[in-house]
Amino acid sequence: MSTEPASTEPASTEPAGAPHSDLVIGDDGLARPVWASTDELLRDYYDTEWGMPVRDERGVFERLSLEAFQSGLSWRTILAKRPAFRAAFADFDPDTVAGFGEDDVARLMADAGIVRNRAKILATITNANATVALRQDGGLSDFVWSFRPATTPEPETYAQVPTTSDESVALSKALRKRGFAFVGPTTMHALMEALGIVDTHLLGSHRRGTSGVWN
């Protein structure tokens, strides 16, 4: 998920003693970024999923696929459609998706519950095949996690949250060589955030450092 800019959300309430205004203290006393402070769907995703370690093949493939579908759209749109995506793509089972043919593409293009973008649908099928092929070299999860950096950002404000990194550029190039599509450096950085490979929770957020990957 690409972090949504604060300017698209309601004005924030600065936490007491905080060095910035990009966090909001909720009714529960927990500090969250502005984008996760008001919408129930986004707040639940932020509190329970985003940045928590994902290390299984299906889970990594799903998030890689959804990050690709997000390109040009808001994460809120993708998250709301996630149940429909899971139903349409066989719960993102790589073996099943790798076997999709033209009939499946036609079915997906007619499915109003998902993002009906032919290039992204074809890329998901391509990436499923690449995921299956990557098993002979340790699998998708280990491959992606091997690009974990030595340190993680420590942003206090949205302006300090990077959208790419040397590692996301390298991961993008490596995946392309393995036959993956729609895996640009910005999309891969968002993937690394979602999987917990990097921690870009703002300092002061109740989720900062909770993944167990970065202490």
From TrEMBL:
**Where is the stretch described as Disordered?**
1-24
- UniProt GO molecular function: DNA-3-methyladenine glycosylase activity
Query: What are the EC numbers?
Result: 3.2.2.20
In its keyword annotation, does this UniProt entry include Oxidoreductase? Answer: no
User: Which intervals carry biased composition (Polar residues)?
Assistant: 1-11
Gene3D superfamilies, per the entry = Hypothetical protein, domain 2 (1.10.340.30)
Q: Keyword set for this entry?
A: Glycosidase, Hydrolase
> Pfam families attached here?
Adenine_glyco
**Official protein name in the record:** DNA-3-methyladenine glycosylase I
